[in-house]
Amino acid sequence: MANPDIGKPRRPMEGDTVFRTITGFEGNNGRASSGIWESTAGKFRSDTTGYIEFGYILEGECRVVDPDGTVHHLKVGDPFVMPEGYKGHWEVDDFVKKVWFVTLTS
């Protein structure tokens, strides 16, 4: 397994969030990738400009809030898709871990 990348949100809103990302697959000349992502508590913006993401919650729970205020509660076993150009935000109260698959659209 690859070493994890440790980082912070590019668009933080609240908290001192830390991300841990492991990329386990890259293919299609770098246009597709998949891995595991973890986040500690915090609130941060999402922007999927240029890609589509499929995710599946492995541990913990969170909320993804659409720009119009619609709240999606995600817990263990929940799949989700973030369409290209999604600009909502994440709210993590404690911890969340997901498996992700991303494909570039441009």
UniProtKB/TrEMBL annotation:
Residues 28-99 form the (S)-ureidoglycine aminohydrolase cupin domain. It comes from the Bacteria. Gene3D superfamilies: Jelly Rolls. It holds the Pfam family Cupin_3. InterPro entries: RmlC-like_jellyroll, RmlC_Cupin_sf, UGlyAH_Cupin_dom. CDD domains: cupin_TM1112-like. This is (S)-ureidoglycine aminohydrolase cupin domain-containing protein.
